[in-house]
Structure formats: structure tokens, C-alpha cells
Amino acid sequence: MRFLTAGESHGPQLTAIIEGLPSEVAIDISEINRELKRRQGGHGRGRRMIIESDQVQILSGVRHGKTTGAPVTLVIENRDWAHWQDIMGTQVPEDTEEIKKQVTKPRPGHADLNGGIKYNHRDMRNVLERSSARETAIRVAVGAIAKQFLKPFGIDIAGRVTEIGGVADGTPLPDNIEEIKKTTEASPVRCLDPEAARKMIEAIDRAKENGDSLGGIVEVVATGAPIGLGSHVHYDRKLDARIAGAVLSINAFKGVEFGIGFEMAHRPGSDVHDEILWSEEAGYTRRTNRLGGFEGGMTNGMPIIVRGVMKPIPTLYKPLQSVDINTKEPFSASIERSDNCAVPAASVVCEAVVAWELANAVSEKFGGDCLTDMMAGYAAYRKRAEAF
Ligand SMILES: Cc1cc2nc3c(=O)[nH]c(=O)nc-3n(C[C@H](O)[C@H](O)[C@H](O)COP(=O)(O)O)c2cc1C
Ligand SMILES: C=C(O[C@@H]1CC(C(=O)O)=C[C@@H](OP(=O)(O)O)[C@H]1O)C(=O)O
């Protein structure tokens, strides 16, 4: 399966085309919209989120609530487009004043300068518009479809925030994924511990007062994946590597780890590897899950646990120094609006990208024309794996 996204932050809409989804997958639009709403929320979001109220339209590939096997087209309109039509139009504007409003001051921490030089855009709006994390809205819609595809295979995904600006929530992951979903939904920062949430909110507010921004860590858990998704046979089929790449593709994500992650550097092997057990009822299982569900690029039947670190939002009310590319003069301009922490929102994006990679791996393992054939292949595989 594959998908493409298109659309600018202040253009008319975001679009995705998903190709390769099997037929017969039940699609509930309200579920996609619920995910979109989750991504818009969280303490620390800026004024743009007051303007937008993301709703998906499905323009192809779904009929009477089920996929047909044809490409699925998803659209989310940008409400802010109404304010940007002149600046973002596809034709040369009649009002020449609009042409003069170019972005010539690259923002540190953004794609502006690198993209400007690479694509020869002296108006770096051409870079800014596409590099914006607005694009993650349509990826969450794609992820919501992936989650619905994974449902009949018993694969479920939840995310949480474990750290914001140095305030950590060390609550151990509950075994029950529904509990993670319920508790994080009730938290404005999507973490499990209310006391940690209070401190995170305080930290976000304090940073905002200081014109600053905060990053943090999100954790995604996926349960129900059978042993053997992904493969050891070739580097680009390793599923943990694909998931790591997907997490790093989220705007502002700079690091990724599985299971106990970087903590592995401090421990001996006997305190890292997950011993193999077997019982009549459970088949093969593990005593621990320190590797986060992967060995040899394949799932090992334990919950997948992946964490990503998000850098602090780069656009600051307390501006950083940069240079105007026309005058070469230094400047430090103040900004009009920005999120000052988007870690809670990013946890929803992280769930979505993990969901997509898992859906893709399931489709590769069990074939992909219609769900009926896939479920038959899946059942036969489970039976064989149980008897192994
Ligand atoms: C959900 C989400 C919201 C974001 N909101 C903002 C924002 O309001 N202002 C900003 O400067 N960066 C924001 N970012 C981060 C930038 O998009 C990102 O840092 C930038 O595109 C540069 O890419 P890089 O950090 O991946 O190198 C956001 C990221 C995410 C995931
Ligand atoms: C629009 C979204 O996030 C945007 C991501 C973003 C950036 O630079 O990445 C900058 C801000 O946009 P604006 O400059 O229009 O205020 C955020 O609001 C969204 O998450 O839907």
C-alpha cells in the first residue's frame, strides 16, 4: 500500500490518495473525524486551531461504508484559506502589493532557508507552506483509515505523552489499552498521571509567558500484532526501521526508540533481552518486553512500544536571530501566532504513522485484494504459528 499527500498550510485543502487498500474494509467517517479532532487539541496549541475545525471528505474508493479496492481520496479543507486566497492563489495576483509580501527572513528551526536555496525560492513562503505541520492533519486521516483496517486483525493502537519540557510522567503502561485511551482522552496534555499533567500545563504556560516553546516525548503502543510482521531478509523490509522512519517524518521529531530504548546502553545483555516462554494456553510469549516488540526487524508478538522525541516548536514569540536574504542584514522579528507546545497533538500523529506502517506490513504479509482473502490467510497463519 502507498499514499501521497498534497496541499499547503494556507491553500484551499489537504488531499491524500491511498492506493492498495483491500476491498471490504468498513470505514466510519465519524471515527476519522474524531481522530482529526484529537489532533487539533491539547494544551499549548495556537490561534490557528480556533479557525480550523477539521472534517474529512471521502471522494473515492469507498461506497456504502466499505472500501472497494480502488484508490481512496481524502480531503480536508483549510478554513484559513479564506484569509489567504490572494497570497496563495495559483495565478499571479492583480494586486501587486500581494506580490511584495514575500517571506525573505528564514526562521531558525524551520525548512525555510534550506528549502529556499534548494528550490531557488527567494519567496520562502513556497517552502514554509508545504513544510508546515498542517500536513499532519491529512496523515492522521490516513492513519484513521489504517486503524479501521487493522481492527479485524485485532491490532489496536494508543498513544500518550510521557514528557513535556522536562516534566516526566513515569506511570507504567497499563496492560489494558482501553485504559490508556480513556485516561489520555481526559487529559489536556494526553498523559496518564494527573499530577504530571498539572506540572506540564504549568510548564507550557510559563514558557508561553516567556515567549518560549517546549518539546517532549510521546509513546505509542500497539497490541495484537502477530509474530512475524516485517522481515529480517532485507534492510528496507525491517518493520522497526520503517516505523522509526515514519516517526522521524513527523515535523519536529528528532529521535526514536523502542522498548527501554537508549536505556539499553547502560545495561548488560541479561538485563535487556526478553526470555522466551511457552505454554499450552498462550503459546510463545516473553517474560519481559524490553525490546518493545521487535527482533530481527519483525514483530515478536509482544506489544510494540515506540517513543519519539519532539524538539521545541521553532517559531518563538521571543524571536531568534536570522538574516534577511535580500539585505543580508540581521533581524529578529516577532511573530503573529504559533503553537508553543504541540506534543499532545503530535502523540495523535505518532499513533497515525505507526498505524499506517502496521497496516502496510499486514497487507504485505496477508495479501491485499479483499479483506475476506486476507482474513483467511491470517487465520491459517495464526494456526500454523500456534502449532510451531
Ligand atoms: C502537530 C504539530 C504542530 C506544529 N506547530 C508548529 C507551530 O505552530 N509553529 C512552529 O513553528 N512549528 C510547529 N511545528 C513544528 C514545525 O512544523 C517543524 O519544526 C518544522 O516544519 C521544521 O521541520 P523539522 O523540525 O522536522 O526539521 C509543529 C509540529 C507538529 C507535529
Ligand atoms: C495548522 C496546523 O499547525 C500549524 C503548524 C505550523 C508549522 O509551522 O508547522 C504553524 C502553525 O500554523 P500558522 O502559521 O497558520 O498558525 C500551526 O498552526 C495544524 O496542526 O493543523
From TrEMBL:
NADP(+) binds at R39, R45. PROSITE patterns: CHORISMATE_SYNTHASE_1, CHORISMATE_SYNTHASE_2. Keywords: Amino-acid biosynthesis, Aromatic amino acid biosynthesis, FAD, Flavoprotein, FMN, Lyase, NADP. Reduced FMN (FMNH(2)). Its EC number is 4.2.3.5. It catalyses: 5-O-(1-carboxyvinyl)-3-phosphoshikimate = chorismate + phosphate. Its cofactor is FMNH2. GO terms for molecular function: chorismate synthase activity; FMN binding. It is an enzyme of class 4 (lyase). GO terms for cellular component: cytosol. Pfam families: Chorismate_synt (PF01264). It comes from the Bacteria. FMN binds at R130, S131, S132, N251, A252, G296, K311, P312, I313, P314, T315, R337. Belongs to the chorismate synthase family. Homotetramer. This reaction introduces a second double bond into the aromatic ring system. This is Chorismate synthase. It comes from Sporolactobacillus putidus.
